[in-house]
Amino acid sequence: MPKKNLSPGFLLVLCLGLCASTLGQEPAPSPLRALLPDLAEWTLAEAPSAYLPATLFEYIDGAAENYLSYGFRELIVGNYKKGKSTAALTVEVYDMGDELRAYGVYSSERYPESRFLKIGGQGYFEDGTLNFTAGRFYVKLLCFDCGQDAEMELTAIARQVEKKAQGGGRLPALLGLFPAEGLIANSEKFILQNVLGYGFLHHGYIANYQVQGQEFDLVIIQGSDARDAENMFTRYLDAHREEAPGVRPTDLGFHIRDRYSGNIFLARSGNLILGAMRIKDGFEEMGKNSLALLLKAAQERPGGRT
Question: What's the pTM value of the predicted model, to 2 decimals?
């Protein structure tokens, strides 16, 4: 049977029919919409807006890259008004994919001097803003012209979002390895990739310390397994061996002199790389002792001696 050629006119009619079937259809609502709070005194000023990785820059242009580096998935934004007052409330819920990535982007924006709250994994209030983590979500509440009761009001709203998100109240377990003495509280950060500026280093935790007037950092880098950690460890040492004065072995691991990070003391335990950094000349013993404490904590954790 000969094939029939479809006429251009028929194809045009078919196209118009298919296109017409989608006209007037709104995009499917974001599943994050259910996390926005239902408030007695506040009403949505407009329909909530949703953003995906390709469009996040439209909402937070300057900060989008930071969120994307942690694996951002979706954002829902609800803008609320309160009666006839000038008060305005913005609720932002960022889906970061998992609890660790949510903590990571949260830790990149908090300051140790903020006032911290027991909400979700952790939260803090500062100048009309309340930010916190709840499971895989990073939640930001911003209140304008909310007066002296802003903290109390935002805390109540945060509790509602926390309940809706069903987020856990846990911080990353590896933070518990950092020694308590000298630790600057809430200075810990989680960095997913490009740790210490090296593309081959990933899943790093950094905490700031102050001991005897000296400021330095302790570092934990988590490999997917011992082999991955060994590979990262070797590549990091090799990168420094190419620079004078290079790398020297110690009884715990290695001592590196770096032009930017001062004295570095490094060791590996199982799937973890541990380090003390920014140790000034003359305080090398402090660096070695700090690394020893971190190494001891790592080895005492379940499965630590591998």
Answer: 0.87
